[in-house]
Specification:
The structure holds 2 protein chains of 2 kinds. Chain A is built from 14 helices and 17 strands. Chain A is an alpha/beta fold. Chain A folds into 2 domains: 10-292, Mur-like, catalytic domain (UDP-N-acetylmuramoyl-L-alanine:D-glutamate ligase), CATH 3.40.1190; 304-421, Alpha-Beta Complex (Protein-Tyrosine Phosphatase, Chain A), CATH 3.90.190.20. In chain A, helix 9 packs across helix 10. Chain A is globular, with a radius of gyration of 21 Å. By secondary structure, chain B is of the alpha/beta class. Chain B contains 8 helices and 14 strands. In chain B, strands 2-1-3-4-14-13 form a 6-stranded mixed beta sheet. In chain B, strands 6-5-7-10 form a 4-stranded mixed beta sheet. In chain B, helix 1 crosses helix 6. The radius of gyration of chain B is 18 Å and the shape is globular. Chain B starts with a strand and ends with a helix. Classes of the chains: A alpha/beta, B alpha/beta. The A-B interface holds A 145, 148-149, 153-156, 202-203, 205-207, 212-214, 216, 343-345, 350-357, 370, 373-374, 376-377, 379-381, 383-384, 386, 388-391 and B 13-14, 16-22, 25-26, 29, 45-46, 62-65, 67-68, 130-132, 149, 151, 204-206, 209-210, 231-232, 234-236, 238-240, 242-243, 248, 250-251, 254-255, 258-259, 262. The complex binds zinc ion. Zinc ion is lined by residues 208, 210-211, 213, 224, 226-227, 229 of chain A. Chain B: Keywords: Cell shape, Cell wall biogenesis/degradation, Glutamine amidotransferase, Hydrolase, Ligase, Peptidoglycan synthesis. Chain B: This is Lipid II isoglutaminyl synthase (glutamine-hydrolyzing) subunit GatD. Chain B: Pathway: Cell wall biogenesis; peptidoglycan biosynthesis. Chain B: Substrate binds at residue 128. Chain B: Forms a heterodimer with MurT.
Chain lengths: 423, 262
């Protein structure tokens, strides 16, 4: 954790200075502040990301779901007592955004950067970012279908992540053992650490990532029927009892109880990754767990907004695996009204077929509203699922029409539109 | 009392990438809404394919999954018997390619298909065909435009024993689409020069959720003339109209226009 950041060469210092100026101007004008500085710096110096990362302890977090939350948790665990730490908390997870986040921690060009950087990375860019930043730890959360019209086949994405992992022998890989594609990528590392907990989403787990054979699932285990690839045993395991008590068992045999404010199984699992990364970098699980207790929301996710007549809790779910996590979370609470808001803009993916991979039948006990630009598609889906609902043009207006506590679940742009409208 | 009408969903673990398993749910639910007992029978990887199903449904899948599924289905005696007796079948995307005579994958390997549709698929090269589709049907029993979302790389040529399902509209005035990728705007394929019971398409959505007329055409082939739909009470009126096939179409024209106008 104490590698001393190197001073930047002159050209990079000039790039950094100009980029900070442009980034500051863009941010004060409210436009693209999260990426523009990095874009300018990269135009001036193609190697600026490598130069900015040099000498830092870098943690990269990738996967389909949970990147932003897990990055935030790891930053909290490693940042601890107010130490400055670079992280892309605005969720800008492509190279320009990561460069911008690193730029932001230079208080002055000559003062030197923060020694630790925790960055979420878009799955498609892990290879490029890892090659530039020489990461100390790479976290692989999960891989499932997401925006097939934009990102492409999830197996291809996972294979490229595996290539990136193999190209970084100096990085410790922390990967999810229960996810077939994630384990396939993690096994490309020499000595991966495995996080484990029973997972419910197995929709992309039918074909072996090594040999293209058929993968069979028995209970919480999985194995390839052709080459024998099987679920690795967990080094860090999450155990949840029916009373809602969650315990993390570490490789040293120690047990740490989690007491998070963030709701749901998915967040408890994200916390296990944060504990594993913390331990790898010298923070004990007990200290890490204590630091995570203070986390209430992540970029507006899980935030509860007070409005006349009640409250609205904001939840993000942009693909079937994300929805599986939200359904688990909604099962834990009382049957509150739920507004399902779905858009299909570029950032969401144009195709909404994925709605049919979400078991909306599980929302039967909740009063439901179908909303967003694709409310008609949501309504047809809910009708075939046999769950009663009404339709609304405007998701936020629908929450205002509802007395008491409401959950608004949106996909990417629907969530961000609602978050903006509610604050 | 007669046995329930069985919709057989084939290998959703490997052929379920685009929500296409929903097609089976749509078929079974539309039967139930007519007072006919309908059920979905899911055939998993280690299950035998039953020969006695009433309708068969195959979905889309990624390349490796497609080869795996094809190897499995080509050797299935149950599926062979069902197809030989003309069981109505819907095959989407990878499913369409699998039911053809052959398809060639990216590395050049030519994989023999199940052979019930006279089509062959080769790699398209270039960019995948991705986007909203509106297509005018070319088969008896369908008279409203079909809509959906296409996302495929292959080019599918029809042989003399297949007929196209539809013709995609020209892009320009609203969405059109690429269809089979052959340049003549043909979309999908129907067996036996259009008289057969196997329907293949590149449309996702799932296609039957967005095109109730196509769902009812398959059900009519399976069980004969259909009683009227009795929808549950309390459903939004616009949605009830869509489910009856009398309302607005779904996302392609309404959603896309609204978005473009926003
Ligand atoms: Zn294998």
């Amino acid at each position: 954790m104490s590698r001393r950041p190197a001073r930047l060469p002159l050209r990079a210092r000039a790039a950094v200075a100009l980029a900070r100026l442009v980034g500051g101007l863009a941010r004060s004008a409210g436009r693209h502040g999260a990426v523009i500085g990095g874009r300018v710096a990269t135009m001036l110096d193609r190697r600026v990301l490598a130069r900015l990362a040099a000498g830092r302890t870098v943690v990269l977090v990738t996967g389909t779901n949970g990147k932003t939350t897990t990055t935030s948790m790891i930053a909290r665990v490693l940042g601890g007592a107010g130490r400055e730490l670079a992280t892309n908390h605005l969720g800008a997870n492509m190279p320009d955004g990561i460069t911008t986040a690193l730029l932001d921690t230079f208080s002055a060009v000559d003062a030197g950067p923060s020694p630790v950087a925790v960055m979420e990375v878009d799955e498609s860019y892990l290879g490029e970012v890892a090659a530039a930043t020489d990461p100390r730890v790479i976290v692989l959360l999960n891989f499932s279908r997401d925006q097939l019209d934009r990102v492409g086949e999830v197996r291809t994405v996972a294979r490229r992540v595996g290539d990136a992992v193999e190209a970084q022998p100096g990085a410790r890989v922390v990967a999810f053992a229960d996810d077939v594609l994630c384990a396939g990528a993690g096994l490309r590392a020499a000595a991966p650490l495995w996080v484990s907990s029973p997972t419910r989403w197995t929709g992309d787990a039918g074909v072996c990532p090594h040999c293209d054979g058929a993968v069979t699932h028995t209970g919480t285990r999985w194995a390839c029927s052709s080459c024998g690839l099987a679920r690795p045993d967990g080094d860090w395991t999450l155990v949840e009892d029916d009373g809602g008590v969650a315990t993390v068992h570490g490789p040293d045999g120690d047990a740490t109880s989690l007491d998070l404010q963030l709701p749901g199984h998915a967040n408890r699992l994200n916390a296990v990754f944060a504990l594993a990364v913390g331990a790898e970098l010298g923070v004990t699980p007990a200290v890490a767990a204590a630091r995570l207790r203070g986390l209430e929301q992540v970029g507006g996710r899980y935030r509860t907004v007070t409005r006349p007549g009640g409250t609205t809790r904001l939840l993000l779910a942009k693909n079937p695996a994300g929805w599986a996590q939200v359904l688990d979370l909604l099962d834990e609470g009382p049957p509150r009204p739920v507004v399902v808001a779905v858009n299909s803009r570029e950032a969401d993916g144009r195709d909404v077929s994925w709605l049919w991979d979400v078991p909306f039948e599980r929302l039967e006990r909740h009063p439901l509203v179908a909303a967003g630009e694709r409310a008609a598609d949501v309504s047809v889906r809910l009708a075939y699922a046999g769950v009663g609902h009404r339709m609304a043009d405007d998701a936020v207006a629908a929450t205002r029409d509802t007395v008491g506590e409401v959950d608004l679940v949106g996909n990417y742009t629907a969530f961000h539109d609602a978050a903006r409208a509610l604050t | 009392m007669s046995a329930p009408v069985t919709v057989v969903l084939l290998l959703p673990e490997v052929l379920g990438t685009y929500g296409d398993a929903g097609n089976a749910e749509v078929l079974a639910t539309r039967l139930r809404w007519r007072g006919i007992e309908g059920r979905v029978l899911t055939v998993g990887w280690t299950d035998a394919v039953p020969s006695g199903g009433d309708v068969y449904v195959l979905g889309g899948g990624e390349d490796a999954a497609q080869v795996l599924a094809c190897d499995r289905l080509r050797d299935s005696i149950g599926l062979r018997r069902a197809l030989d007796r003309g069981a109505p079948t819907l095959a989407v995307c990878a499913g369409l390619q699998i039911l053809g005579t052959a398809f060639t994958i990216a590395d050049g390997t030519r994989v023999p298909g199940v052979g019930v549709l006279d089509v062959e698929t080769r790699p398209g090269g270039g960019p995948r065909r991705i986007g909203d589709v509106v297509a005018d049907p070319l088969v008896d029993g369908l008279d409203v435009p079909l809509e959906g979302f296409e996302n495929h790389g292959g080019i599918t040529e029809l042989g003399p024993d297949a007929a196209p399902l539809a013709r995609v509209r020209e892009v320009g005035r609203g969405p059109g689409g690429a269809g089979n990728g052959t340049g003549d705007r043909l979309e999908g394929a129907v067996s036996d020069r259009g008289r057969g019971t196997v329907v293949g398409t590149y449309l996702h959505g799932p296609v039957l959720a967005r095109n109730p007329a196509l769902a009812d055409l398959l059900l009519t082939k399976a069980v004969g003339e259909l009683p009227p739909l009795e929808l549950p009470e309390g459903m939004p009126a616009a949605t009830a109209a869509r489910l009856r096939g009398t309302g607005d179409d779904l996302g392609v024209r309404t959603g896309a226009r609204r978005r473009a106008g926003a």
